[in-house]
Amino acid sequence: MPQMAPISWLTLFFIFSITLIIFNIKNYYCFFYNSNESSQNFNIPSHKMNWKW
Asked: What keywords is this UniProt entry annotated with (predicted)?
């Protein structure tokens, strides 16, 4: 089995690290959270429950 030179291990490490960082940054900035719409759609019922036990 052929052995790999340390330079190719370093290039593989840097390539995978950079792709991981780019993937995480892309996922972080592509997530849109609309807090105004979700707070307006969430309505708490105002009537009180009257339990007669």
From this structure: CF(0), Hydrogen ion transport, Ion transport, Membrane, Mitochondrion, Transmembrane, Transmembrane helix, Transport
